[in-house]
Amino acid sequence: MRKNREATGKQADSLRDSLAGVRARHSTLTQILNDHSYTGEAVQKLFAANERHGGGNFRAVGVLADYAEVQEQHESALEQYMRDELEYVVVETYDHARAGVSLLRNEVGGRATFFVDSCAT
User: Fold this and answer.
1) How far is CA 102 from CA 40, 70, 91, 107, in A?
2) Which of 52, 99, 103, 110 could be cross-linked to 57 through a Cys-Cys bond (beta carbons 3.0 to 4.6 Å apart)?
3) Residue 11 or residue 68, greater confidence
């Protein structure tokens, strides 16, 4: 029973860590959608449709702005230099990008650029 309790405890810790990561990602995406500073209307609608329908085969990791970590004094320079690129939708696979394009065409409308994060797998 002790071994079973230890294994269950380790599994619970792992699930707790995973949940914290998912909550942080959700919080970041929500903040970006609410902030309106990086995401255009089509990208906002894409993430909203993903939230409502589960996105089918579409699964976005975030937007490129999530990955742009610079010191505060350099943020405005980064925003000016990368402007539109900051709202590229980051996905894990080309299939997710295709599903996102399909979602844009069939439900959301508008345009978005997808960035496939080949390091995610």
Assistant:
1) 18, 33, 14, 8
2) 99
3) 11
